[in-house]
Amino acid sequence: MAKKSGAGLFYGYICVAAAATVMMLTFGSLYSFGVFFKPFLAEFGWSRAETSGAFSLSFFLQGLMGIPMGRLNDRFGPRFVTTLCGIFLGGGFVLMSLIREVWQFYFLYGVIIAIGVSGSIAMMAIPSRWFVKRRGVMTGIVISGVGLGTVIMPPVATWLINAFNWRNSYVIIGFAVLAMMVIAGLFLKKEPKQIGLVPYGDGSVRSSKALNTSGVDFSFSSALRTWQFWVLGILFSFHTFCVQTIMAHVALHAQGVGLSAESAAGIISIVGAASIVGRLLMGIIVDRIGSRPVLTVSFFIKTAALIWLIFARADWMFVVFAAVFGLGYGGAAVGITPMVADLFGLSALSLILAGAGFIGTCGAASGPVIAGRIFDVTGSYFWAFMVCVALSLVGSIMTMFMRPVTSRERTGELAVKEQAK
Predict the structure, then answer these.
(1) Residue 368: CATH number of its domain
(2) CA 192 from centroid of its chain's CA atoms
(3) Dmax of the chain from CA atoms?
(4) Is residue 5 part of a domain?
(5) 102: domain range?
(6) What is the pLDDT of residues 318-359, one digit of tens each?
(7) CA distance 166 to 151
(8) Cβ partners under 8 Å of residue 125, min gap 6
(9) In the 8-state DSSP scheme, what is residue 31?
(10) Of residues 69 and 60, more confidently modeled
(11) Could you say which of 126, 163, 167, 207 is the most buried, measured as most Cβ atoms within 10 Å of its Cβ?
């Protein structure tokens, strides 16, 4: 018989801490790409679009591989997924030290490392499975691991490159990521009933702000038949297009207008630090007013920051950009994930998250390479950043029109369940 979660330290908090650690290692190492960008250009003479292409391919395959990883998580749990992905991620970085040809770069960064990152979908499902109350803030904590990794890893990678060169840096990063992910994975469990518990706050009244007040859990195939799923995917795509464009190119843009390499790398770290604040703050607000208004405001904040970036030239202007953009970026990230659980329930959560995430990777995959191509043609990032402004603005408007799953859609799902019985 499952126990209530009131006595002692609820194990869900340990799972959230371990998941945040995995996210920190995964995306901190991935987002160090911008720091390695310039050494690649200097040694191999590749164009910016060609070099960005591996980053874009990686994000596309992350989304594609997230679907089978979601199935693996639903079946075997996050410990298995984290260990498997740690091997691919850490091993991929170690092998990056050996590249000589562009196809090797694309294979390792675009395929092997992408498989390693795809397991992050299992981490995003943990707060919704372990928490009813505090779901928003716990989601914020897990996704804050991405921001913490972004704060820590780019400066560390810059120091390693200066001290040991970029090839040895990848060896060090690869072995560190592998060991730490395997250790963190040991603390992960899929859901409370695995150890005889129930979710924190189980049985509490659903918020009137919920987007699926009936409590019906949707299957993956049924979620695909709703327009809300596709809107979520498009919003995810717009969000990731802007974020990955900035992560891949803002350091180069800043150096191009006169900032030092250290200051440029610091921009990424400030974005990461501000995103932590955004995730935690917006996570608290999600628990109070729901995910939709948080997502709307976050898209507006990103829009304002991107407009500012177009005119930024001095160090302090880039600091302002990074702080505001990070706040909006973190808020959008924490708004999207609970919305999936609010709309479609928990029974196929990992798979539905992976499906929406795959649509999102179309933006993540196209953003950096399109921005690189625009720079190669025009010699400026102006139009690349203008595209990001437009997508963020449209995303905020679309979010305002998001509506709950209709009674007809809920009834259809119940009919499917009854027929299955």
Answers:
(1) 1.20.1250.20
(2) 24
(3) 66
(4) no
(5) 11-196+206-420
(6) 999 999 999 998 888 888 777 887 788 777 777 888 888 888
(7) 19
(8) 70, 73, 78, 349, 350, 353
(9) T
(10) 69
(11) 126
